[in-house]
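Dear colleague,

Thank you for sharing your sequence with our group. We've completed the structure prediction you requested, and as agreed, I am returning the results in plain text so they can be pasted directly into your records. Please verify that the sequence below matches your submission; if there's any discrepancy, let me know and we will rerun it promptly.
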Amino acid sequence: MKIIVGIFVLILFFSVESNAQKKVFLGAPHEFTRQDTLRGSITPERAWWDLTYYHLKVELNPNDSSFVGSNLIKYRVIGPGGLMQIDLQPPMTITRISENGINREFTKDGNAWFVKLSDNKISGDTASIQIEFGGKPQIAERPPWQGGVSWGKDRNGNPFIVTANQGDGASLWWPCKDHPYDEPDSMLISITVPDPFMNVSNGRLRKHEHHPNGTNTSHWFVSNPINNYGVNINVGDYVHFGDTYDGEKGQLDCDYWVLSYNKEKAKEHFKQAHLMLEAFEYWFGPYPFYEDGFKLVEVSYPGMEHQSSVTYGNGFKNGYGGRDVSSTGYGMKFDFILVHESGHEWFANSITNWDVADMWIHEGFTAYSENLFVDYYWGKEAGAAYCRGTRLNISNDRPIVGIYNVNKEGSGDMYAKGANMLHTIRQIINNDKLWRQILRGLNTEFYHQTVTSEQIENYIIEKSGLDLKPVFDQYLRDTRVPTFEYALVNGKMRYRWGNCIKGFKMKVKVIVNGQEHWLQPIQKWMDMSLEEPIHTVNVAPDFYVASFLIAEIN
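Please find the predicted structure tokens below.
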């Protein structure tokens, strides 16, 4: 008799203390503050009004790195109220708030500003306020990961000024309702900069004015709902070229804004934009913002998913900063930033998380879109290999889903682990036609909406006809990688799921003696026997699970 016993290492599980707004990440307490709640929850001062329109005006002064401007906010009354919360982070300050030309009193509580409006609010009414503001916004030390404004120079010494503020929030530099649940239906962005430089923002250029004082103002109109962090300013010595893409909804205008000395290389490199659009319209459905067009805008940081104004700073090279994020070779066949950030037009900009705790909806699906891009052009196995390769980037440090109502995202594993979860679900569904229908259906069902993780999960469960709730709970809300545990006993196999949440179940494809078998493990031992003795067992590699031989007894 031969017995082989393995030593299994458990991955530390995320624990939660029950007291209000106190959580534990791997044993380290994280206290949340009133400011976290004001930023991350639907406060009473937010709940009574529905945002419908912004007209943001900003004048940039490169000499002292300051902004001064105003924001006209239009809204619809949806409940009783009169005290309104507006968000703006220091050192920026609000200098005046008016309603129908009448100054209104306001107070400040950290990053939240509260203005007392007139009391005659009736549900269904529309109204507006005008906010004037100014200051020197936070400088982005490491954009886009650390947000703010970059006051840079291009290689010719010209001003190169850009904003990026996903994690820190749009209220770093302009006053807004800084919570993802509520988006304006449309927006006008009017930015004034010194001549002869150009600002490029979201949407379509409606008007470009030159002023006698040596400045110019560009007016960009966004005709679709837009998330706050997607609003951006990009100022530089830009030149423009463009083309059209013959897409599912007709002719899509594609515009490209790059620094003057990069125009020729950009003309060649940005041909990948059409490849991206073709692949993603196939998998996800029509590009979500035909009315506003598609833009790539050169910036001084790697890139961001600013809606209809995708920013790009990857050096006109394939890969991501010159490397392959999948370690397979496929990652060097396309420009990671161009593909990934554009994928966010579907997941982040059209389908937007209601709370940043569900940011995996943005990043998991978009990281998965890289796999689908490779799949579309180099085949299904190539896409699968790419996805498997990104597992090297997973830490399993804390859950992918964050903490609700306190502006707390989950683990950075939302990228690669989120993608591998979706790839695993594709295997479980085992019907690529249905899987594509689900992906396209998500973009129809939740078109231009803010959603919860629960809504996305339930949609996939309903359309697949499978009980995937334990799968979502395992991968999104736990740090452990489920393990297919098995033992070979006198030519037979015993198997179960281990290292997983209570009640976890998921069917899995296992290669036994070189032949594929679909198994339905649970957390109790189950038995399998074949006519011949079982001697080799391997889980199909496209399932993001571990496997572990508990014992072999002959």
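Summary note from our side: Residues 347-477 form a domain with the Neutral Protease; domain 2 fold (CATH 1.10.390.10).

Kind regards,
the structure core
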